[in-house]
Amino acid sequence: xxxxxxxxxxxxxxxxxxxxxxxxxxxxxxxxxxxxxxxxxxxxxxxxxxxxxxxxxxxxxxxxxxxxxxxxxxxxxxxxxxxxxxxxxxxxxxxxxxxxxxxxxxxxxxxxxxxxxxxxxxxxxxxxxxxxxxxxxxxxxxxxxxxxxxxxxxxxxxxxxxxxxxxxxxxxxx
Length: 174
Description:
This protein has 5 helices and 8 strands.
């Protein structure tokens, strides 16, 4: 079981908090939680460790952990990937290299197309042996429409994952 709490295993996408975008620095709702998400994106080690302390106790054992890839196909590494690798310690499989964005897509926060098809046509699965026949926890830092999660779930299941559960650290709110 991926989540220790049985109710969490029933949810489509689990989010831990809300993210209020800066919107050019003029969003009065931009808060400390939103700043923490941006710090995670910047790969701040203290923030990654803080999220580890929040997420790790929620999880069970014996599953693989994958991440939604960056929109930029040239980007190597990410804060959410660093967190996933920490979480994939003993008893969990590091599958952070499984989902690969092979074609860069426009930045979604700047008006890029958020359609499911955009993600399906720009992501591939590598190293499917890491997820084949396994339960998979799919992580992302922020979710807005859920389409990147849905696309990655489809791809993981097409490549043999027995179950995919999605966890976002935050959900965008306007």
